[in-house]
Amino acid sequence: MPKQKKGAKKGRRTYGPPTDQPAVTRVRMPYRRNGEMFGRVVEIYGQERMEIFCEDGKSRLGRIRGKIKKRVWVRKGDLVIVNPWAFETVVEGQKEKCEIFWRYLRHEVAWLERNRRLPEILDINNIPL
Q1: S-S: 104 plus which of 87, 89, 95, 108, CB 3.0-4.6 Å?
Q2: Are 80 and 104 in contact, with CB atoms under 8 Å apart?
Q3: Which residue blocks in 2-129 are alpha helix, DSSP H?
Q4: CA angle at residue 44 from 39 to 48, to 5 degrees?
Q5: Confidence (pTM)
Q6: pLDDT band for position 14 (50/70/90)?
Q7: Which CATH number fits the domain 32-122, given the four candidates 2.170.190.11, 3.30.930.10, 2.40.50.140, 3.40.50.300?
């Protein structure tokens, strides 16, 4: 029988218990020294812009960070980490702006709620979507 020259081993199998949900090893928390905070997506405007309700009670216009723009799909109602713009001049009648750094997956949000790390103001039932 000829020696296999290319390709992967076709007989390789994975052993162990099947995993329905991924195990939460480490959940990223907002780095408060840099001004990061939790936020909920309330409305999607298009062109990577959306309305974010932040944990300080303000509603901001959020922009998806370029690093995660094509990798992560952010939907309405998602829990995200945002960083408000510090260099922005505040104009009356306009919303403040922020940048979306991180989107939490469903099992990570469940872990945050179980361990009471999520602020009460960001409860999905309290925010008008």
Answers
A1: 108
A2: yes
A3: 106-114
A4: 90
A5: 0.76
A6: low
A7: 2.40.50.140
